[in-house]
Design brief:
The chain is mainly alpha-helical. The protein has helices spanning 3-30, 37-55, 58-66, 72-90, 93-116, 119-140, 148-153, 162-184, 199-212, 248-267, 283-297, 301-315, 323-331, 344-363, 371-383, 409-428, 432-437, 442-451, 461-469, 476-489, and strands at residues 222-224, 230-233, 236-241. It is built from 20 helices and three strands.
C-alpha cells in the first residue's frame, strides 16, 4: 500500500459516512416524525464530529506529503482532499458539531415559523446560526485578509468572490430590468392556467417527467416536501417535489429541476464513486444542469407542445387554446414573491436580493432583527409591490436555517453556465427541437452527460464549463437567450 492508496482508502470511508449524513438530512425533510427534531440534531452533531475527526486526522498530512498521483484523476483527487483537509483543520471540532446541532434545530424552527408566518419565532435561531458561521469564517480566514463572506462562498463555488459575482450581477441587472419592464407592459399577454389539479395525478405525471429526463428509479425515489431538493450520490440519489392543487407547473418543473441535479450525480463515472471526484464540480455547475433541464429544455416551445398533450390527457382541456397558449402559460411572467416559482426573467433578480442581504448580514451591516424590514423594502424597490407576509418574504427559503450563507449566488451562476451550455448544445445538436417535440430530451441529456456530467469533480468549475463549451463562460448567451425568447413570446 502506497501513501496514495492509504489516503484514498481513508477517504472512501469518509465519503461513505458523508453519504449517511446526507441521508439523515434527507430523512429529516421527507420522512422524519416532527417530534424527533431534537434527537436528530444530536445524531447529526455526533456524525459530524466523526467526519470532522476523519478529515483532520494527523495521518492525512503525511499521506498528502508523500502521495504520488498515478494519473490525472488521482491528481484531481489529491487537490480536492488537500483543500478539504486544509479547511477542516482550521475549524475546531467543537465548532463543527455546534454548527451541525444548531442548524438541525433551526431547520425545524424555520419550518414552524414559515407555517405560522411568525418570523419572530425564527430570529433567535437565525442569529445563533449566523454567529456560528461568522466564527467558522474567521477560523477559515485566519492568517489571510479574505473577507468572511468570500470564505463562505468558497464552500460552494471555490475561487469565486463577492466582488466577482457582484460584477456579473451589475452587468446582468440593467438588461434583466429592461426586459422585465417591457414584457409586463406589453399589449400581448399569454394566458394563465387556472383550475383544480389532483395531487395524485400531479405526482404520477411528475414521476413520468423524471423518467423522460433520464432519472434512474432503480437508484432513487421521489417524495413530497415543503422545499424541493436533491440528495445523495452514486447509487442512491433521491429527489423531492411539492404539489399545489391550483398550480401543477410548480410540481412538474420542480421535479424536472431536481432531476437535473440527480442526473448529474447518477451520470458521474462509476470509478469516481466514494471519492472526492464523485460529486459535482461546484454548486454553480450543479445548478446549471438543473436550470437547463427545467428551462432551456423543459420550458422550450418544442417540449411544451408534447407536455401539453400529456397534461390534457391527464387533466382534460386546460382552457389555454392549445399548445401555443400552453407554452405561453408555462413561461408567463407574473408578479410573485417566491424564488422557486419565478420565471426565467425575474429569477436572477430574486438571487441578487438575497446576495446583497446575506452579504450584509455576514458583514454585520444588517442586524437579524432588521432583516424582515430590509427584505421587504428591497423587494418593493426591485419588483414594485410589497410583501404581504413573511412566508412570501424572508421565511420562504430554508437555506439560512441550514447555515448556507454564500449558496444563493451559485443559483445565478448556474443560470449563466446554463446559457453557455445551451448555446453550445444548439451548435452541436441543430435538430434538438425535433427531439424535444417528440418528448425526447435524450440528445440534450446525452450531450450534457458526455461533455460535463460524467467527469464529476475532475476539473474546477471554470474548467468544467470551458471543457464542455470550448470557451470561457460569460453572461452574454443567457441574456441573449432570454431577450430572444421573451421578445417573441410577448410580441415585443
Amino acid at each position: 500500500m502506497t501513501a496514495f492508496d492509504d489516503l484514498m482508502a481513508h477517504q472512501r470511508d469518509t465519503e461513505a459516512l458523508g453519504q449517511i449524513l446526507g441521508r439523515l438530512h434527507w430523512d429529516q425533510e421527507a420522512m422524519m416524525p416532527r417530534g424527533a427534531s431534537v434527537q436528530r440534531s444530536e445524531e447529526i452533531a455526533a456524525l459530524t464530529a466523526v467526519l470532522h475527526a476523519r478529515r483532520t486526522d494527523p495521518r492525512m498530512a503525511d499521506w498528502l506529503a508523500q502521495a504520488e498521483a498515478p494519473d490525472d484523476a488521482g491528481a484531481a483527487a489529491l487537490r480536492l482532499i488537500a483543500r478539504a483537509h486544509a479547511r477542516a483543520t482550521r475549524v475546531p471540532g467543537r465548532l463543527a458539531s455546534e454548527i451541525a446541532r444548531a442548524t438541525s434545530i433551526a431547520q425545524g424552527v424555520w419550518a414552524e415559523a414559515r407555517a405560522r408566518d411568525e418570523p419572530a419565532l425564527f430570529l433567535p435561531s437565525l442569529a445563533e446560526v449566523l454567529d456560528l458561521k461568522r466564527e467558522e469564517a474567521a477560523a477559515l480566514a485566519q492568517g489571510t485578509d479574505t473577507a468572511p463572506y468570500d470564505v463562505l462562498i468558497d464552500d460552494f463555488e471555490p475561487g469565486a468572490t463577492a466582488q466577482g459575482i457582484g460584477a456579473i450581477f451589475d452587468r446582468m441587472r440593467p438588461r434583466l430590468v429592461a426586459l422585465r419592464a417591457a414584457v409586463i407592459d406589453a399589449p400581448h399577454q399569454p394566458p394563465t392556467l387556472r383550475g383544480h389539479f389532483d395531487r395524485t395525478a400531479q405526482m404520477r405525471l411528475a414521476r413520468e417527467m423524471a423518467g423522460v429526463f433520464g432519472y434512474d428509479f432503480a437508484h432513487g425515489r421521489i417524495d413530497e416536501v415543503v422545499h424541493p431538493f436533491c440528495s445523495g450520490g452514486g447509487q442512491d440519489v433521491r429527489i423531492t417535489t411539492r404539489t399545489a392543487e391550483d398550480d401543477p407547473f410548480n410540481c412538474l418543473y420542480s421535479t424536472i429541476h431536481e432531476t437535473g441535479h440527480a442526473a448529474y450525480e447518477q451520470s458521474i463515472a462509476p470509478e469516481y464513486r466514494l471519492t472526492p471526484l464523485g460529486h459535482g464540480a461546484s454548486m454553480g455547475v450543479h445548478e446549471s444542469q438543473a436550470r437547463m433541464y427545467e428551462n432551456q429544455l423543459g420550458r422550450s416551445r418544442a417540449f411544451c407542445g408534447w407536455l401539453h398533450d400529456r397534461m390534457t390527457a391527464e387533466f382534460g382541456d386546460l382552457g389555454l387554446g392549445g399548445a401555443d397558449g400552453f407554452y405561453g402559460a408555462v413561461n408567463r411572467i407574473n408578479p410573485g414573491h417566491i424564488r422557486t416559482e419565478a420565471d426565467e426573467v425575474q429569477y436572477n433578480l430574486h438571487i441578487m436580493l438575497r446576495f446583497d442581504l446575506e452579504r450584509a448580514l455576514v458583514a454585520g451591516d444588517l442586524a437579524v432583527a432588521d432583516l424582515e424590514c430590509a427584505w421587504n423594502d428591497r423587494f418593493e424597490a426591485d419588483f414594485g409591490y410589497g410583501v404581504p407576509r413573511a412566508s412570501l418574504g424572508m421565511l420562504q427559503d430554508v437555506h439560512w436555517s441550514l447555515g448556507l450563507f454564500g449558496y444563493f449566488p451559485t443559483y445565478a451562476l448556474g443560470n449563466v453556465y446554463a446559457g453557455c451550455l445551451h448555446a453550445a448544445l444548439l451548435r452541436d445538436v441543430p435538430d434538438l427541437d425535433t427531439h424535444l417535440g417528440a418528448g425526447d430530451p435524450g440528445p440534450a441529456t446525452d450531450w450534457l452527460r458526455t461533455h460535463l456530467q460524467v467527469h464529476g469533480g475532475l476539473r474546477t468549475a471554470g474548467d468544467t464549463i470551458r471543457h464542455a463549451i470550448g470557451t470561457d463562460p460569460d453572461e452574454g448567451p443567457l441574456l441573449d437567450y432570454l431577450e430572444a425568447k421573451f421578445s417573441a413570446l410577448y410580441r415585443l
